[in-house]
Amino acid sequence: MTPDVSCSTARVPRRRVLHGLGVSLCLPWLESLPVAAAGDKGSSAASGPPQRVAFFYIANGVRGWDKTRQAADGGIDFDFGLAPLAGLAKDVNVAHGLYHPGGEQNGTHGAKAASMLSGAKANHSTTEVRIAESFDQLLARTWGGGTHLPSLDLSCEPPCPGNDVGYASVYLNNISWKTATVPVPREFNPALAFDSVTGRGGRGASTKKILDLVLGDARDLRRRVSTADQRRLDDYLESVGDLERRIDRSFVTAADAAWHPAISDPDMDRPADRPYPDIAERTQLMVDVLALAFRMDRTRIGTVMLNNERSDASYRKVVAKATAAYHDISHGGEHPHADIVAYIATVFAGFLQKLKDTREGETSILDNSQILLAGSMLYGPSHDSKRLPVLMAGRAGGRVKTGQVLDFATAGDEKRRLNRLFLSMARNVGLELPRFGDADSPLEEFCS
C-alpha cells in the first residue's frame, strides 16, 4: 500500500519552531505548513529506592527476535537480534504473542506507533487527530510525581513529515499522548534533552517560562494557519504549559526523604550544540541522557522512540550493508535488518547494564525498574501486528520474576492483550487500576 507522502521523499524546509530570546520550541504537525522538496538541511517503598518505568519503541518490525526460547538449563537462548542481551538473561523476560486486539492488525504504518501504549485505534484522518491517553502519561499523571520531570520523552530522529494512507503524520512520530488529541512534545536534540534533565541551560536561556518567550511568535503563526491548526496549536501550547507547571514541583517528595539518588551531578558531558544527522550517535546520547535522569532521580518515567514509523534514517555507520533507509530495509530480506535490530539491542543492553551497575543499597536501579522494549509490528514486510515483539527488563523492586521466555501465542485473545501487561506494571508501582483500554485484569506472570 503506497502512502500519500513518503518520509524518504519529502522534507519540511527547516525544523519549524517558535522562537523567543534564544529558546526554540518544536511545533506539532500542522496541516497548514507546507512540506518542501527533499534536499533542505533543516535541522516504592517510602523509605527505599523508588521504581522507574521506561518504554523503548522500535518501529517497522524486527528480525532475529521470535526464535528466542527458554533453554533446557533454565536460561534463555536468544535469537540473533536479541543476542547482545545474553549477559543480562537473568534480568529480562521475553514475551511472545501479546498484541492489541483493537489496533490495526495489517496494512499501513500510519497509526501503529500511536497505539503502542494504549491499544486504541486512531481516528483515520489527516485533520482530526484522536487516539487515547497513553499508559506512560497515565503514570506521569497519577504516580510519577515529585521529580524534576514528570516524564522524559525522547526521540532518536526528527519528526517524519507527510501522512500515511490518510493518517496524519503526528501518528507516525508519537507514542506518548497526554490526551486523546494532544501528543507529548518529544525532544530529539541531545543537548536540550541533557539541559531538561540537569536544569543547566547550556545556552544561557532565561529563567522565564518558555511559553512567555515564544508567545509573540505563536500569535503571529496562529494568524496564518487553518482553524483546525489553530486548535492544534492551542492544545500543543497548553500541553507544554502543563509540563512547565509540573517541572516547578519539588525534586523529591517527603516520602523519599530517607533515600538519596545515586548521583547528584551529571557524570557525562553535555552534548555539543550541533545537528546530529547520524542516528546511531543520537541514539547513544539519548539513551545515556535517560540513564542519567534515572540515576539523578530527575524523572521516574521515560519514553524513547528509537525510530519513527516509515523511518528514513540511515544505519550505515554501524551496519555496513545498510545502504538504504531504515523503512526500506525493514521491508527487505533478513539482513541487514536483523543486524540493525541487533545494534539496537546492543545499545539497549548498554543502558540496562548502566542501571544494573548503579547500586541502591543492596539493589540496583535495574532491580527497581520496569523497562519495556517493544514494537507495534513483528514483521515489516507484512505489517503484522497480530503478535508484537515484547521484552521487559527489571524486577520492579522484587515483584517480577525474570529470566523467562513466556509464550502467549495460543492463550486466547483475552490473555494476549498487551494492555494487561500495562495493568501489571501499574500494580507493581502500587497503582491499582480497574481497567486500562481493553483490559480489566493484569498478567500474573508480570506482577506479584
Question: What's the SSE blueprint?
Answer:
Elements lengths: L9 E2 L5 E4 L2 E4 L9 E2 L14 E6 L11 E2 L5 E2 L14 E5 L15 H4 L19 H8 L9 E4 L13 H4 L17 H9 L11 H13 L4 H21 L31 H17 L5 E5 L20 H5 L3 H24 L1 E2 L2 E2 L4 E6 L15 E4 L10 E4 L5 H4 L1 H11 L20
Parallel strand pairs: 5-10, 5-13, 8-15, 9-10
Antiparallel strand pairs: 1-4, 2-3, 6-7, 8-14, 11-12, 13-14
CATH class call: Alpha Beta
Category by helix and strand content: alpha/beta
Q: Percent of residues in helical segments?
A: 25-40%
Largest sheet: 7 strands, mixed
How would you describe the overall organization of this protein?
The protein is α/β, with parallel strands linked by helices and 448 residues long. It has a single domain, classed as Alkaline Phosphatase, subunit A (3-Layer(aba) Sandwich). It has eleven helices and 15 strands. The strands form five sheets. The chain has a seven-stranded mixed β-sheet, with helices on both faces. The protein has a two-stranded antiparallel ribbon with strand order 1-4. Strands 2-3 form a two-stranded antiparallel sheet. Strand 2 and strand 3 (23-26) form a beta hairpin. Helix 4 runs parallel beside helix 7 (279-295) and helix 7 (279-295) packs parallel to helix 9 (334-357). 51% of the residues are buried. The model is unreliable at 1-16, 19-24, 35-46, 202-208 and 249-257 (pLDDT under 50).
